[in-house]
């Protein structure tokens, strides 16, 4: 169905007011859009589960440490990568897949999807998928995170038609500024202050603070009764009535 031009033209930047009461944030009209068209930003079951996601546009030398921690702690994650990252960090992308993580689509050139034609959006997604398939055993992609969190109803609908599911987030903070790292305790506290059941956490692996805080986050969230699951588990919860055992 063709969307009205007024809806096609309007774009949104994913965001919300942070909650510190350990409840999911109110994302306003964005929730209605995802309810209508599909996509995720949290697990609304109320279960004490966490989904770790990382955005990888370029490398600062910390992704290996992140992968080390995930392997040691037996935690699944999803890494949303760009074409530049795949070209520049082939071995790390291979390692993500080999160690059981999901590689998600963050587009090849990191454009604003709401300013593209459907053909150009298709090219951005398919070229990234092909680049990952060429170097790893992951031959298909299901999850897309739009660059800069920019979207509209049309871009979500087009992604659906191309076989993709949008994944946003319910917990994030300013962690991507490599010139303003404030120590691992600050990153740790941001997560612990905002954590809530069903959180989809967005982190950037360019952050030294995140790499150093990750093990503490995982250990202390588990002490609070949280378990870690993959995005595949989140999607399956909409299909299967029985609970899935997490890590």
UniProtKB/TrEMBL annotation:
<dbReference type="InterPro" id="IPR011330">
    <property type="entry name" value="Glyco_hydro/deAcase_b/a-brl"/>
</dbReference>
<dbReference type="GO" id="GO:0005975">
    <property type="term" value="P:carbohydrate metabolic process"/>
</dbReference>
<dbReference type="InterPro" id="IPR050248">
    <property type="entry name" value="Polysacc_deacetylase_ArnD"/>
</dbReference>
<dbReference type="InterPro" id="IPR002509">
    <property type="entry name" value="NODB_dom"/>
</dbReference>
<protein>
    <submittedName>
        <fullName>Delta-lactam-biosynthetic de-N-acetylase</fullName>
    </submittedName>
</protein>
<dbReference type="InterPro" id="IPR014235">
    <property type="entry name" value="Spore_PdaA"/>
</dbReference>
<feature type="domain" description="NodB homology">
    <location>
        <begin position="48"/>
        <end position="229"/>
    </location>
</feature>
<dbReference type="GO" id="GO:0016810">
    <property type="term" value="F:hydrolase activity, acting on carbon-nitrogen (but not peptide) bonds"/>
</dbReference>
<dbReference type="Pfam" id="PF01522">
    <property type="entry name" value="Polysacc_deac_1"/>
</dbReference>
<dbReference type="GO" id="GO:0016020">
    <property type="term" value="C:membrane"/>
</dbReference>
């Amino acid at each position: 169905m063709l969307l009205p031009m007024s809806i096609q033209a309007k774009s949104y930047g994913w965001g919300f007011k942070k909650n510190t009461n350990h409840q999911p944030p109110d994302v306003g009209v964005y929730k209605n859009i995802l309810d209508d068209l599909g996509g995720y930003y949290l697990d609304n079951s109320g279960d004490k589960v966490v989904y770790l996601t990382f955005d990888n546009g370029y490398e600062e030398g910390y992704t290996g440490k992140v992968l080390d921690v995930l392997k040691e702690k037996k935690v699944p994650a999803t890494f949303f990568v760009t074409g530049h990252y795949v070209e520049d960090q082939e071995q790390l992308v291979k390692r993500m897949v080999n160690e059981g993580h999901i590689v998600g689509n963050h587009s090849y050139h990191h454009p604003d999807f709401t300013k593209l034609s459907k053909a150009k959006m298709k090219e951005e997604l398919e070229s990234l998928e092909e680049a990952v398939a060429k170097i790893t055993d992951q031959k298909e992609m299901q999850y897309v995170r739009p660059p800069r969190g920019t979207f509209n109803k049309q871009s979500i609908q087009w992604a659906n038609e191309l076989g993709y599911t949008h994944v946003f987030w319910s917990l994030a903070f300013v962690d991507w500024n490599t010139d303003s790292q404030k120590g691992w305790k600050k990153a740790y506290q941001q997560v612990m202050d905002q954590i809530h059941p069903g959180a989809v956490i967005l982190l950037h692996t360019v952050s030294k603070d995140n790499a150093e805080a990750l093990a503490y986050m995982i250990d202390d969230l588990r002490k609070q009764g949280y378990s870690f699951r993959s995005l595949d588990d989140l999607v399956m919860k909409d299909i299967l009535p029985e609970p899935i055992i997490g890590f």
